Amino acid sequence: MKTRINLKAVALMIGVALAIGNVNATEKVTKASSHENIIETSLLLEDWMTSEAIWNTSDAIQFVDAQEEMLELENWMTNSEIWDVANVWSNLETEAGLELEEWMTNDVAWEVNNGPAYETEYEDNLSLENWMVNDTIWN
Questions:
Q1: DSSP letter (8 states) at residue 119
Q2: 20, 93, 104, 115: least buried by Cβ within 10 Å?
């Protein structure tokens, strides 16, 4: 309800502001600025733009291939015991399977105690009130 009143108030203020702004409106003719009237000259090709000496400089620059050091194989890289997957998995410890214990399936253990420490609070059922279904309020 409060939102609806606020929206109407804002709309009224905007309407008043627009009405006041239009009262003193006069005709204004906008002219293009001098910057928009500048005509660009056509581009001309110059000698340096097409000179092979400037653009084809692969002969003048000597490219040096950067070479890295040779990597050496270390013992662990070629050790078959490390890389043998079957061997690795066979050395792992296996966990024993989980077993159901008596307390896990005991109904008494899972019943909630209704003592004073475990009291549950119940709320009354909600009921529809007149204002909740009133069309004049919500529309």
A1: -
A2: 93
